Amino acid sequence: MTAGLNTRMRLAAALLSVAVALVSYRYVAQGGPMPQNVAHNRFVQPWIIIHAGAAATALLSGPLHLLQTLRQHRPRAHRWVGRVYVAGCLVGGGSGLVLAAGVSEGPVAQAGFACLGVLWITVTVQGWRSARARRWADHRRWMVRSFALTFAAVTLRLYIPIALALGLDFSSAYRAIAWLAWVPNAIATKFYLNRQRAPLSSPLTQASTR
Predict the structure, then answer these.
(1) The model's pTM
(2) Residue ranges making up the domain that contains 152
(3) What is the pLDDT of residue 161?
(4) How far is residue 72's CA from residue 50's CA, in Å, rounded to a whole number?
(5) Rounded Cα gap, residues 175 and 19, in angstroms
(6) Which among 37, 147, 177, 184 counts the fewest CB atoms within 10 Å?
(7) pLDDT (tens digit, 9 = 90+) per residue, 33-45?
(8) Separation in Å, CA 140 to CA 62, 76, 151, 185, 210
(9) Pick from 114, 106, 9, 23: which is nearest to 63 by CA?
(10) Low-confidence stretches of the chain (pLDDT beneath 50)
(11) How many domains does the chain have?
C-alpha cells in the first residue's frame, strides 16, 4: 500500500511539474496574461523570461532525472538529463535572486524568495559535485533536495488560488507564500530522506565499472 501511494504521489508531482512548466513557457513566448505581482516586479524584464525558461526546463527534466529506470537502464541519458536539469536550476536560481530583489510585496517576500534561490543553487551544486566525485548516495540525496526546491514553482501556484479563494489580502498572503512555497517542501524532504534506511546507490556505479 505504501509503495502504491508513493508511486501515485510521484506521478501526481510529475504531472503537476509538467503542467506548470508548460504554462510557464508562456513568459518565454511573451504570450498570455501576466499576473499583477509579476508585472510589478522592478526587474521583470528580461529576467522573468530567463527565470521562467530555466525553471520550467528544470521542472520538466527533474522527474526524469529522478527516475530509477532511467538511471538503471539508460545511464548516459540520465547524465544528459541531469546536466539539463542542473543548468536549469542554476540559471533559474540566479535569475530568481534578481527577481527576488524586485518583488513589490516588501522585504519579507523578498527574503523568502532570495533564500529559496540561494538554497536551490547550493543543493544543486552539491548534487553535481557529489556526482563528479562518484558519491552516488550523496548525489541522490542532494538531487532529491534540489527537486523539492524546484517543486516550489508548483506549490507557489497552489497556494495563490487558495489564498484568493479564502478572501485573504493578496499582499499579506504573498509574503507568507514566499516562504510556504518551499519551506514545507524542504522539511518533508528531510523526513523522507531520514526514513530511507538502505543506502541510496546509483547503477551508474555498476555501469562505470563494466
Answers:
(1) 0.87
(2) 2-209
(3) 94
(4) 33
(5) 24
(6) 184
(7) 888 889 999 999 9
(8) 12, 16, 16, 17, 21
(9) 9
(10) 1-3, 5, 198-210
(11) 1
